[in-house]
Structures are given as C-alpha cells and as structure tokens.
Records
---
Amino acid sequence: MGNKLLEIKGLKVHYITEDGTVPAVDGIDMEIEEGETLGLVGETGAGKTTTALGIMNLVPDPPGKIVDGEIIFNGENLRTKSREAYRQIRGNKISMIFQDPMTSLNPVYTVFDQLTEVIKLHQKVGSGEALERAKEMLAKVGIPQERGEEYPHQFSGGMKQRVLIAIALACNPALLIADEPTTALDVTIQAQVLEVMKDLKKQFKMAMILITHDLGVVSEICEKVAIMYAGKIVEFADLESLFTNPSHPYTVGLFNSIPDPEEDVTELTPIKGLIPEPTELPPGCVFNPRCPDVMDICKGEFPETVELSPTHRVACYKYHKGIGGENK
C-alpha cells in the first residue's frame, strides 16, 4: 500500500428523465490505494452503483451522463480516453462483479466459453492457453474444472457468483469493483463467497471497491469506508476511525439501527423519514429533513468537507468552526 491507484474528484453523473434531472452522483471525492479495500456504503438509491458504472464508463446513455469530474487511474484521467481505449482497460485492469449473478451470465454459452472470451480478448493468447487459464481460475474459486463445460442454468446462485468472480479476475486486474456481490444469496453462501473474495484479493494483490449496505461485511473486509447518501459522500474514513468515532448524523443513525448482541433492548433506533426522491432533493444538506442535529444553516448550502484527521473527513456543519462548535 501507499501508492494511490484510483482517485475520483468532483464526479457528477446525472440522469435526464421526463420528471427532471436526477443528480445520481453529485460531486463526490474519494481515493483508494494499491491493494486496499474500500467499502462504499449507503441505502438503496444512494448512488453507489452509478458511481461504479461511472468508473467503468458503463453509465447507460441515454438517459445517464457523466457531466463533470475526474476519474484518475494509475495517474491517467480515464475521462480523456476513447471508447476503444476504455474497452482495453475494462475487464483487464479494472473489473466489476455485478449485483445479480442470476442475470449476469449469458445463458447460451458454457462457462468455459465466457471465461476464455475475456482471456483471449485482453491477454492476446490462443484458445489452448486461454482454456488452461480458465481451468486455473475455476479451481481458484472452488469449482471443479469439468463443470466448465456446463451452462449457467446448471449452477446454483452461489456457484454462478463464483463463476463471475473467476471471469472478473481472469486477467489479474489492479482494481475489482464488487456491487453487492452477495445480495441474492442466502447467509451461509454469502459467507463462503466473501471468504473466496478475501482469499483471492490477497493472492492477486489487487485493490477492491465493495458496494454494500451491510456494515458487518465492511468490518470484515475493508480498510476504508465511504458513506454515501442521496448522491453525496457524507463521511470518508479509515475503518477504525469510522467504527470508533462515527461523526456524520447519518453514519451515527446507521450504527444505531444495528442490533447489539451484548445489549438487552426491545427496539432499535431507526433513522426517521425516508431517503428523498431523486428529483426532489432538499436544498442545503441532503440529509437535513431527517437529521436530529439540523440547524438553519443546513438548509442553505451543502457543507464543505471538514478533515477531522488525516484519514477521516466529514461533510457536516457540526464540525465547521464557529457554527457547530465541534471544531472551535
């Protein structure tokens, strides 16, 4: 670790709809170093998947469009790349595991067909070598090699997810984006898939962005965490800082809504209200209608990010000098 692999600066992704413009990702900043795992956490509709699609240059256009910002990967701004140049990066240097394993594989091609296609495309090898590499990748994710001749419908959900992991890692990418990779799986299979991903991350020495809404998974896998709400990153911290000192009221609300097995409580403390409609975001801080610490200033402009430590920053007026009192 120590070398910055990916840096996102002021990224904005908008969807133009009949009901208006949806700022799905609204000026976010985040970074990840080589070999590091970043957890991107938030409710459904927060903009997590759109952020990933933006990095991969896969935002559906229309109606989506990256309207501003920089995506700097290995020192190069990917937004300046041509479609063809991006195609050489995607699946090769940056790979993504999509949310639903049931629909992410092509039903009319065998597993070997789908694995070898990626390898031949990016590694420029012949069919024989691609097949050998495909067999190795299946073995790494715990699938018997003979099953490579089978079709996706012959696999369970957990096994399909392992196939997708094998495809994503076939070209030894520097960065893997995993979009809620265990959502459609039962709890025991979830644990197995996450264990496979942790082991392979160490083997391949790659960085990973894990999109999730499960802080328990984050605590097991991640070194950094970005908390996302309504298109904004409201808190960004190393794992220890976030878990010992959650600072944004939304982050505090997330932790308060998790049951603590050591405490005898009959009810959890939910976050009041609902995430706002994307076309009707409130002025000022997007969390202000639900925030227990809301002040008048919160309803004017979205707050500038405040650095609480070199590894912990938060976008909240509570920490602005002379306003919230925390940093006076």
---
Amino acid sequence: MKLTKVTFTGVDERTDVKRLVQLQKRFPFVEFGVLLSYDWQFNGNRFVDPLIISVLRDRELNLSAHFCGQAAIDVAVGKKFKIEKLLGNNARIFKRCQLNLKAAGLFSELRRLPPIPFIEEVIIQMHTPELCEQFLAGQRPRFASYLLDASCGAGIDTPIQIVTSPGVHIGYAGGIGPDNVEGKLRTLLEYPTDDKFWIDMETRVRTEDWFDLDKVEQVLEICAYLNKEYSPIK
C-alpha cells in the first residue's frame, strides 16, 4: 500500500508553531490535527480555545480539524452553521476534517453527508474494520475517507486490521507512537495493493498530556526512513 500522510493529533496551547513549520519543511507528508469541541474548556490540554487557532493562520501548514462530541454530530446532521461559529475566521486553514463519533448510530445521516465548502476531505471515524466494511458496502459520500481507530484517542495499542476498497482513502490509528510505529507501518506498506492510506497518532506523542514535538520528530524520522525503503510518499 501507499502512505500519503502521517497525522499527529492534539496540537495545544503550548505547541511551538515555528517548529511545526520547520518539521513540515523537512517532512512534507506531515499533517497536524487540532481537536475541537464546544466544551473545549472542560476536556483537558488536548482541546484548545478556538480563538488560539488563529496563530496557525498564514503558516501554510497541513492541518486537519477533528470535531468531537456534539460538534461532530452537528456536522453529520447538517448543522454546519454551528461549526462555522466554532471556527470563526479560521475555517479555511483546514484541508481535512474528522468526525469523532459513533458512526454506527448515524449511518443514514453520514450516507447523505453534504460537502463542506472549505474542506477537501471529510474523515469518518470507524471503531472496527467490520463497521467500516459495512458502511463501504452501501451508498457513501465521494469525498469521505475513514479512520480505523478502536482506541479512540486513548493510546491503547490495537492490532492493525487492514481494510481495502478501490479508490477509498483509509487511515489507521490505535496506540501508535515512537516505540511501535516502524512495525505497524511495515505491516501496512508490505500489504500487496496500491491502495492509499495514512496513519494517525495522539496519546503516544504526548508527555504529561502536552503535545511533544520531540516524539513527533522521532516518528517522522522513522517514517521518512521507511519511505526510502518502500515507495515514495505522494
């Protein structure tokens, strides 16, 4: 399979934005995820005040907005005006967005999901490969991709279970970090198809629950090394 992106979710208020820019220059395949919630102030360090997101503007960073809780449900059911209020003038800095929700209870709504004007790709979180395969078997939005994440951001190491579907972009998460990314990435890269995928990590690139750019850099160096061994990231 072909790796397209390596996503690190959980940019927070202590993150050195200049270093994000430097890392992206060295590793153009990197993407930084920002966790967003209406109740951000009650959800710990990983969720930033939406007003702080403005520091990421005009940096040409590869960014994804990860909507959680009711915010994700509102996108699924078409209440985008609430999301626009949450993001304010920062909406257009995100190239992708992710819906962190229980997809099984919203299949009907997600199958009818309309495009979001400022977003190129909408990622739907799937908790099991079986659930993802069930959704892919029916009608689905042409601009959607799918993240397999049984851990749900908790950092629990879950085995890689590969799902393939022609033309569908699928991501893999679940306890990935500096200590195990090489093995997990090799499993995916060695799978004998030309399907495209990405990997996402959150908890295991944090220290005392703050985004740790040293761990991020360590992971990126491993991914770049494997990229030379396998096919180029595109």
---
Amino acid sequence: MYPSYTRRGDHVIKKEMIAMLLAGGQGSRLGVLTSKVAKPAVAFGGKYRIIDFPLSNCINSGIDTVGVLTQYQPLQLNSHIGIGVPWDLDRNIGGVSVLPPYEKSKGTDWYTGTANAIFQNIDYIDSFNPEYVLILSGDHIYKMDYEVMLDYHKSNNADLTIAVMPVPIEEASRFGVVITDDNGRIAEFEEKPPKPRSNLASMGIYIFTWKVLREALIATGDVPNCDFGKHVIPYIHERKQPIYAYEFNGYWKDVGTLGSYWEANMELIDIIPVFNLYEEFWKIYTKTESLQPQYVSGEAKIERTIIGDGSEIYGEVYNSVIGSGVTIEPGAVVRDSIIMQNAVIGAGTQLNKAIVAENVRVGAGAQIGVGEYAESQLDKKVYAFDLVTIGANSVIPEGVTIGKNVAISGVTTAEDYPDGALPSGGYIIKAGDK
C-alpha cells in the first residue's frame, strides 16, 4: 500500500496528478546533433529547446509538479531546466525535480527502459501521494491540454488512458498501435506491429491511476529493459483493467530523425504556420538570456526567416531558422537552413539546406550543401536526407567545398579535406566527437 498522505513540515502533500517526463534518451537518429547533448536539450525554433514544449504544456494545463528523468549527457539539460523558473515550476512543494539514476544500497542502476526509469522513482511519486500520474516524453513538439485528457480518463473510470492520433497506415508500424471499441476502450494493443491492423498510434503520453501503475511497476519493473509498450501496458491489459484511447487531432511531431527535425523547423516559417509559436493563450516558455537586440545591416537581405535575439545579419538569409547570438557575415548566403545559438557563418560562404549546431565556426568562402545527393558512408539509417549536419563546437576551414548528406563533428582543418572538398555522403568525425 502507498501512504495515504505525506507530511513535509506542517504540510500534508496530496497532488491530484503529477507528471513524469522521460528525458534520458540519446536520440541517436539525430546523429552528431546529439553526440554531446541529450535529445530533449537540442535547440528548436531559434529560441527554444525541445523539452520546453512538454514542460510548457504542463504549466499551461495546471500541473505544478514534474519529475524530469535524465541520463544521457544531462549537463546542458540540467542547466537549462535549473529550478524551473521559466515555467513557473520553482515551487516549495512540487515544482520541477531533475531525477538522474542514483546510488542505492544494492548498487547503482542505470535506467534501462522507460518503465524501469519510473520504477526506480516510485518513492518520489509516493511522496506526493497522487491520484494520477502523467507519463510524458521529452522529445516531441506539440501543444496539449493534459487537463482535458484527465477529465476523459475520469469520465471513463479508466485505469490507463493512452493519447493516440491517426497516422498513415504505412507509417503505423513505427508506433504502438491500438484497436478500440465504439466507446474508445482499447480492445487490443500491439507494439510496433509489422502489419498494423489500425492507424491509431500511441503518442507515448499516458495517464495512469497511480495505484494501478504502482502495482504494474512492482510486478514488471525489474524486467530487463522494462518498457511501457512492451511490458506495463500488456500487464494491465491482460488483467482486463479498463484502458481507453484519447484521440488527439492537433499538431504533434516526433523530431527523432534529421529529416523530421529539419521539417518541423521549416514549418515554423510558413506564411500560415502549421504550428504556431505565437498564440497568446498557450505560450511556450523557455530559459532566456539577457541579449542585445538583433542587428540587420543595410546590405542584408532576409526572407521568411526566424531570427533570434542578439544575432547580427550582414549577408543574405532565406527560408531559415536562426538562433540567438548568430553572426552571418557580409556576402554569406544561407538558404533552407537551421543555425543554432552563437554560430558564425563566414563572409562569402554559401550554405544550403544545413543544420548547424551551437558554437560552430564556418570559415569564409566555404561552399556547403552543393552537388548531387549520395548515400551516407557513415550511417545510412541516420543520414538519409540531403542535409549537411554539423555538430556543436565544430570548425569548418575557409574555402572548402562540402557536398550533400554529410556529417561533420569537431575542429576540422584544411588537411581534413582532400583537394579542398568533402564529397556528398562523406563525413569527418574527429577523435573524441564520436
């Protein structure tokens, strides 16, 4: 049995629902973008980081207690979250708590699966004695009112409610897929079926009645790589406990590949954006630095572009997302690209369809993203798009020519480019940057 209440000083803590945000994944399909940073901490939209979206959803939905489970490369993520001030989550009771794996009397255990991470934090959840627990992923872009989903969960007397959305049937095998009856109760759940019989895909957003989840975690949590889709949900379903599907029809993007990440950023600059960052009633909050205003020189040209605070634009920028503190030097032309914080694009450089991570330095006169597409020599599954991907803190020397579908990470010099070029499909990963 879990405690009926918890005392902290003179306070009796009883939260109706708390959120547990899974933010420990590497995001290996983002290649060099996540070689030194957790996927939820990757910059997005010129100003934000991916984790800002579920955190903002929580505070906009009235949820004031969030546990963030970190593991892989957590330094930047921890610094970004801090004590939760930007999201109004700096609370004496509740607020945001960063929950990395920790040493126990029997030793130290890494989180080995989504459900195992929650299992290792049962005591944290118990301390708030919640009626319900909301499980979230830290790597999706969307806006959702979790309070509406909770009302749906209550109205059905559900033990578990899974947020789902319709996807093209040819893509359904990448998700957990549900089959429901006429009342929305889930009759069958299949995790990534090779031949899906439904196009209702799980979004990885769950509301559990806590006592039900607690029992399921104790029964399954020590299973190797314990996962919600493979272990916890089947455990509850086998006991014929009520599981319902909450259908969501808004914008939701899994930015787990370089292609989907680039596409989601580009959708922000449409004349009528599919995903609107500027809605007053549902703000997206983030940690912001005190920066000077943007500067655009008289010679600069800018079309359909988001530009972050403190950026200086002397060249030309088209159809791009530019982060804060970026410098585009005179004569440089940037097209269809994402440039993250504090990067410098050298004078006269031509940059086409690239993702340039934070603190990158590109030398003058480089030609980047040119030529014909070629298959990646590094990883065909990760680098399967005609994008140039440059990892954080990298340096590109002046005057080099770089093709399409390439990956670069580290401080490179002219000697790394035979005949001054890196052909399409090629890569340069310096020692220590793998």
